[in-house]
Design a protein that fits this description.
Radius of gyration: 22 Å
Strand order of the largest sheet: 2-1-3-10-4
Largest sheet: 5 strands, mixed
Strand content: 15-25%
CATH superfamily of the largest domain: Bordetella uptake gene, domain 1
CATH architecture of the largest domain: 3-Layer(aba) Sandwich
Shape: globular
Order of helices and strands: HEHEHEHEEHEHEHEHEEHHH
Number of domains: 2
CATH class of the largest domain: Alpha Beta
Helix content: 40-55%
Length: 324
């Protein structure tokens, strides 16, 4: 009797294990919604669509890219934070909504450290400082001198209030003692278009939206915001070597899912995205767009979010760059 009961118990447990395995293997069983925090043509959109196309076959389901633009990326990020934690909603967000937002909004509608679960860092790169080609400056030192002689007469665009594009310029203004007026846009395409048209005269953003305009002679690249020269644009000097010692401000992006999403789902998404980001074809596409793929573990993104939040909190306080 005992032996029969033991055998039956083992068979039952084996059956339950098989059911559990089958349930785990069933994910994903339907299309996955992938929210973009910036508009079509932006660096976020470029990264998201490249990733979506690469992972759809390994996952066996379509990845539905949806641009949810507005409020400096917080609209899409909030939508993901409030979605069901079942692995069928992801968001490609960036340092603005994830690290700066808690210090810039009095009532951010989500807590990036509790309501979202990190999956993977997608790219990390310096911002590129560019000016309208008609501005009579050829390098950073000339720009700083011109701005000091013309306080309040220059406008700078950003890809959104609270973005790395915004705060990098505010940091430069603070370090150099400049008065330049902020004009926020929803994403890099309209910000870059404004710069090319001369409606704004300066812009910090990732190179994706600026490279065609630089090649067309409509805007001029002056410096990159990394502490070292950017491998994709090695001829462009850093701000640190051009007159602002120790200046560093990095733009980064990452994929997240709603907080409470089961770890096996997070690991599956991370696994496929990490393979994609390390593949030769994806790396080339991202490099051609002026982006450096990163990859890594969910913990890497969690650590980056926390360290960037801690780094920029005092900068935001000193500059007064709050949104509400």
């Amino acid at each position: 009797m005992t032996r029969q009961f033991t055998t039956f118990t083992k068979l039952a447990l084996l059956a339950l294990a098989c059911i559990g395995d089958a349930g785990a293997q069933a994910y994903p069983a339907r299309p996955i919604r992938f929210l973009m925090t910036a508009p079509a043509g932006s660096s976020i959109d470029v990264i998201g669509r490249i990733l979506a196309d690469k992972i759809k076959d390994p996952l066996g389901q379509p990845i539905l890219v949806e641009n949810r633009v507005g409020a400096g990326g917080t609209i899409a990020t909030d939508a993901a934070a409030k979605a069901a934690p079942d692995g069928y909603t992801m968001v490609l967000s960036f340092n603005g909504p994830l690290a700066f937002g808690p210090h810039m909004y009095r009532k951010l509608p989500y807590d990036p450290f509790k309501d979202l679960a990190p999956v993977i860092i997608t790219t990390s790169q310096p911002n590129l400082l560019a000016v309208n080609a008609a501005l009579p400056v050829k390098n950073l030192r000339e720009l700083l001198d011109f701005a000091k002689k013309n306080p309040g007469k220059l406008n700078y665009g950003s890809v959104g209030a609270g973005s790395s594009s915004h705060l990098t310029m505010e940091l430069m203004k603070m370090d150099a003692g400049l008065f330049i007026v902020h004009i926020p846009f929803n994403g890099s395409p309209p910000a870059a278009a404004s710069l090319a048209a001369g409606d704004t005269q300066l812009l910090f953003t990732v190179p994706t939206a600026l490279t065609p305009l630089i090649q067309a002679g409509k805007v001029r690249a002056l410096a990159v915001s990394g502490v070292k020269r950017y491998s994709v644009m090695p001829d462009i000097p850093t701000l640190a070597e051009s007159g602002l010692p120790k200046f560093e401000a990095i733009a980064w992006n990452g994929v997240l899912v709603p907080g409470g999403t089961p770890r096996p789902i997070i690991d599956k998404l991370n696994h496929e995205m990490d393979i994609a980001l390390k593949s030769a074809d994806v790396r080339k596409k991202l490099n051609d767009a002026g982006l450096d793929p990163v990859g890594g573990t969910p913990e890497d993104l969690a650590k980056l979010m926390r360290s960037e939040s801690d780094k920029w909190a005092p900068v935001i306080k000193r500059t007064g760059a709050t949104i509400d």
